[in-house]
Amino acid sequence: MEPPPDLATLSLTDIARLLAEKRLPPVEKWNPEHCGDSDMRIARDGTWFHQGSPIGREAMVRLFSTILRREPDGSHVLVTPVEKLSIAVEDAPFVAVEMKSEGTGQDRAIAFRLNTGDIVAAGPDHALTVRDGETGPHPYLHVRGGMEALVARSVYYELVNLALDEGGERVGLWSGGTFFPLDGAA
To answer: Which CATH superfamily includes the segment(s) 9-89?
Structure first.
C-alpha cells in the first residue's frame, strides 16, 4: 500500500480529488458466513492489536481498515468475499489525528486525516457530532457505513478554537455547507 498523503501539503481541492479517486472494497456487498473471531482489537486510542500485541506495520493496519465493516447490531467485522471475522472495537474504529481548514463561516471546508491515513472531509455525509461522556465531551466524525472516528482531543481543541475565533451565536463550525455544533448541546 502507498503511504498516506501529508495533509499539511494538500489544498482542499487536492483533498477533494483524492477522495473522488479513493476506491474501497465493496464490503457492504459481501455476505459470507461468520467464520469466528479474528483475535483482533482496536483500542480507544486507535491502536490495532492481534492476539494481545500491537500491530506495528502501518500498512497492515491500513489494509485491515479497508475491509472493516459495522454490522446492523453495532458489532464490527473484517469481511472478504469468503469470510467474516469479528473484531473488538473499544470506542470508534478510527481516530481523527489531524485536520486542515480553509475558508471561514459558511464557506469553510474541513478535512481530517485518520490514524489509518484515510482523509475524510466533514460535510452532509460526514457529520461531526459531540456526545457527552463521563469524562467530558467526546467528538466523533462519521467515516463510512455507520463507522466513526473519535476526534483526538488536540484536534477537537483546534476546532473549538476556530469556532470561538469566529464568534458565532453557537460554538460550532461550518464545513461542506453544513453547520456542526461543537458544544455537545442538542
So the answer is: duf1285 like domain (3.10.540.10)
